[in-house]
Amino acid sequence: MQPSRTFTIDHQVSLRHSRTPLRFRKGLPGRWWATRTPDGVGTLQVELVERSVRATGWGPGAQWLLEQTPRLLGSEDDPEGFEPRHELIDQLARKFPFGRFGRSDRVFESVMPTILGQKVTTIEAGRSLHKILRRLGERAPGPAELWIQPPPQRLASMGYEDFHSLGVERKRAETIIRAAHRARRMEEICSMSPQDGLRRLLAFKGIGIWTASQALAAATGDSDAIAVGDYHLPNIVTWALAGEPRGDDRRMLELLEPYAGHRGRVIHLLGLAHFSAPKYGPRTAPRSIEHL
Hints:
Order of helices and strands: EEEEHHHHEEHHHHHHHH
Strand content: 5-15%
CATH superfamily of the largest domain: Hypothetical protein, domain 2
CATH topology of the largest domain: Endonuclease III, domain 1
CATH class of the largest domain: Mainly Alpha
Oligomer: single chain
Radius of gyration: 19 Å
CATH architecture of the largest domain: Orthogonal Bundle
Strand order of the largest sheet: 1-4-3-2
Number of helices: 12
Shape: globular
Structural class: alpha+beta
Helix content: 25-40%
Number of strands: 6
Largest sheet: 4 strands, antiparallel
Distance between the termini: 50 Å
């Protein structure tokens, strides 16, 4: 019998529309997450049962995951003060009313895949992450076919050349290795304020505002974090809020200023709606670094 717990939460929540690491697994009920907890590897299944949440855990980290479930579902997210200032955002807030910012409290686990996404296409980053999980990670406990990232110590022991066959060039590889060496310092961010956590991440060589913001949103549930420096995001925001098909970071931040404290929530709503700006010209073709 697997350990489980049923929670009655004081806010409505949508597993599908909340920002959490929980994912659908074909043929299995609920949403799933596998991670390396302070107690060891573990897998979590979360199901909505009427107005309650039932959580079930597998592996040495099961109890930690059960304790984490309310935070994962946004119990610490406070949408008070979020007031749509644009018709589109008002429509999306009504369409996706129960999307919350959950927090995983696993910082390095959020940072490593984000580093993989630096200056490459989503396809390239996903391909490299898949290889890292399958070659260096481990199969998660439980019935879902999930894989868990390798421990930071494993990545810290590698040379940058070991990452080449994983589709990662020297610059990103060395950033991952440096982060892995100081993963414990990263995990301390969970007990810091968003401002202090951001400063801590930005102190790592190779981690800029784009990487830090995305990692903080996932690990600490920061609903104000914005991926400044993103290739597509400024165009999406300026098109959505001002009808301008092209924009830059300065214009994006200017348009998002009325939503201070909830700017990441606006970005999340646009993402849920798959909103995009007009496209001009060909897409960037993914590369195959391991064959270079």
